[in-house]
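Ticket #4471: structure output looks truncated?

Reporter: J.K.
Steps to reproduce: submitted the chain below (290 residues) through the standard prediction queue, then opened the result file.
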Amino acid sequence: MRSMNDIRASSSTLSGAPSLTMSKPSLNNSKASLTHSRQSMNVSDGEERPPTREELIAEFLDKAKFYTSLCLGTTAILSVFAFLFLIPFVVDPAISTIVADYDPVPVTCVVTDHVYAEGMRNCTWSSCREGCTTAAIRCHQLLVNYTKIAFHEWHKHPRDLDSIEWDVMDTKFLVNTEGCGYPPRVNCSEFAKQYGYSHVGEPFPCYYSRAYPEIVVARYSWDDNLKHLILSLIIPNVLFAVSIGVLSYWYCPCCDKACHKSPRVYAEKYPTKENKLLCRSDDEEDELDY
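Returned output as attached by the reporter:
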């Protein structure tokens, strides 16, 4: 006969078998649901989600910022080169003209001598030179006498040249303050034809320097000189300052912190007496609760 322990063991085995068979379907169902969820997640990840309106606007702003930064950087570099180019050709002659202090009213001049020379040894000075940075190989040298009688008065009442007492005689006559320039504004051949050759001895208007009376020029305009000086100083510098300012605001962390710093006053950073009393009362209540 079997013992009681064997009977109990067999009964426990029989009773445990149905539970094991019942748990297998539930496990298979959970695995299937997990696989289905994973497949659905993979499908959802594989599909491209269309960008929203905010994302499109942000992308457009990033592109606009990039191209604007590129243009501003190029503008800043070109402004520096333009200003350096304008210094010897516009700024310095304009300042020299202001320092010379020409009389704005043209006076009467007469060319006394015209010499056309070639070679650097013979062209120690020139009334007109095309190009301010190169040495003169061919030059026109004109000497003039001038009187401070205004040319419009001379034109109304002509005088005998032999009876005139000239204020300055045989002084150098220049096309402008620097005595040089670039076509088409300065054409030395036309300048020589206008004042030299067959026109020697004919009265014409000219401008003398009140600071340096021996300097006489053919062309002078206070308004044009001042306009060129202001434009050559303002335009390149303003473009450079605006470009660098915008780029610094966009890309410099220090500038961004300075522009977005807290508007609170230094004294407001510390608690007031009322806040201190409230904090003390809260701390005392917490101690009493403990």
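Triage note (M.O.): checked the attachment and the full token line is present. Strands lie at 107-118, 129-130, 138-150, 168-174, 180-181, 203-208, 216-217.
Status: closed, working as intended.
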